[in-house]
């Protein structure tokens, strides 16, 4: 089966690696093209750098050549226009495999693949269709999430479900840690799904449109903390926005990132457990010597363990307080 793989960020790299491993092992799967976003600058004056998938594709090309195996074409188009479609058609692909590519596939593009396309999506579809399903599950404090391999359809993330896997959530996951799980699990599920498609043995299940929910694109501004929210909500936000855009507040006019924290206890009781009077949300109340810095929220206390001024390095709470003598008792904006 001749495959074009489309992906851009790090989460998609293990799936591409799994396809190349299958190609080397059996030859039944053959990657003929890799489609990824164009190279971009890291910073205003930095050099152009490939996407994580682009970098991995170059490395995998070299590995195939070292083994005297036929390599694949890497494409980094701005748009999936007629010239790109011609290049893809010349590869004579059978199927498109997509994981977080970042562009919509139109009907003309999908028509190039006789066996259609499949997409790896890190949620339990039809829940959380869209670009940010992992942060959405954390923000909503879900008890479980998962990963879905679906057929590609013209409507976003609406294709038939080929396989799903669930993971129970402990409430301490971050987008970074949950993305690592999704990356690895997607790579494990992909080869058997492709074999099932080739053999005609895999069954598909239509999604229940009545249960479809959607998640929106995240912006840097979403990371600002509202201290009037509950400790549970702020904790979920910090975890959902790690590693990007991170959660920020302001202290003495400086941007301060809250990198690691947790709600101390039941938000209905934990304020009175430590202090007889509830201070305004955002007040830095003091410390718990075994845990960290205690900050009043709209409902409950947040224990901060790791933080960072925007212009300085990240520090654990003890070392941070050594350099911020006036922090206790202050009010965060």
Automatic annotation (TrEMBL):
It comes from Gracilinema caldarium (strain ATCC 51460 / DSM 7334 / H1) (Treponema caldarium). Residues 218-324 form the Formyl transferase C-terminal domain. Keywords: Protein biosynthesis, Transferase. One of its GO terms (cellular component) is cytosol. InterPro entries: Fmt, Formyl_trans_C, Formyl_trans_C_sf, Formyl_transf_N, Formyl_transf_N_sf, Formyl_transferase-like_C_sf, Met-tRNA-FMT_C, Met-tRNA-FMT_N. It catalyses: L-methionyl-tRNA(fMet) + (6R)-10-formyltetrahydrofolate = N-formyl-L-methionyl-tRNA(fMet) + (6S)-5,6,7,8-tetrahydrofolate + H(+). Residues 1-193 form the Formyl transferase N-terminal domain. The keyword DNA damage does not apply. Attaches a formyl group to the free amino group of methionyl-tRNA(fMet). The formyl group appears to play a dual role in the initiator identity of N-formylmethionyl-tRNA by promoting its recognition by IF2 and preventing the misappropriation of this tRNA by the elongation apparatus. It comes from the Bacteria. (6S)-5,6,7,8-tetrahydrofolate binds at residues 123-126. Pfam families: Formyl_trans_C (PF02911), Formyl_trans_N (PF00551). Its EC number is 2.1.2.9. GO terms for molecular function: methionyl-tRNA formyltransferase activity. The keyword Protein biosynthesis applies. Belongs to the Fmt family. This is Methionyl-tRNA formyltransferase.
């Amino acid at each position: 089966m001749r495959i074009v793989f489309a992906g851009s960020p790090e989460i998609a790299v293990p799936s591409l690696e799994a396809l190349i491993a299958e190609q080397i092992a059996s030859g039944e799967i053959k990657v003929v093209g890799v489609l990824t976003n164009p190279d971009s600058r890291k910073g205003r004056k930095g050099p152009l750098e490939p996407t994580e998938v682009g970098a991995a594709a170059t490395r995998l090309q070299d590995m195939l050549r070292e083994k005297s195996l036929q390599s694949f074409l890497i494409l980094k188009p701005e748009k999936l226009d007629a010239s790109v479609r011609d290049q893809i058609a010349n590869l004579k692909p059978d199927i498109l495999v997509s994981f977080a590519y970042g562009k919509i596939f139109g009907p003309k593009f999908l028509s190039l693949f006789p066996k259609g396309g499949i997409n790896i999506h890190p949620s339990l579809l039809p829940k959380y269709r869209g670009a940010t399903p992992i942060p959405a599950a954390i923000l909503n404090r879900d008890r479980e999430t998962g990963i879905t391999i679906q057929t590609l359809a013209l409507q976003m993330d609406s294709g038939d479900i080929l396989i799903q896997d669930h993971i129970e959530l402990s409430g301490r996951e971050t987008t970074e840690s949950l993305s690592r799980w999704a990356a690895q699990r997607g790579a494990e599920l992909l080869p058997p799904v492709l074999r099932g498609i080739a053999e005609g043995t895999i069954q598909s299940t239509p999604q229940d449109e009545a249960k479809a929910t959607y998640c929106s694109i995240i912006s840097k501004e979403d990371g600002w903390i509202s201290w009037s929210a509950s400790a549970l909500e702020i904790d979920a936000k910090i975890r959902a926005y790690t590693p990007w855009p991170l959660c920020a507040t302001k202290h003495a006019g400086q941007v301060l990132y809250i990198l690691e924290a947790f709600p101390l206890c039941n938000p209905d009781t934990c304020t009175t457990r430590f202090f007889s009077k509830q201070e305004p949300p955002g007040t830095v109340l003091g410390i718990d010597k075994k845990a960290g810095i205690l900050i009043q929220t709209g409902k409950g206390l947040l224990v901060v363990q790791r933080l960072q001024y925007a212009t300085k390095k990240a520090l654990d709470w003890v070392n941070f307080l050594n350099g911020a003598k006036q922090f206790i008792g202050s009010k965060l904006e």
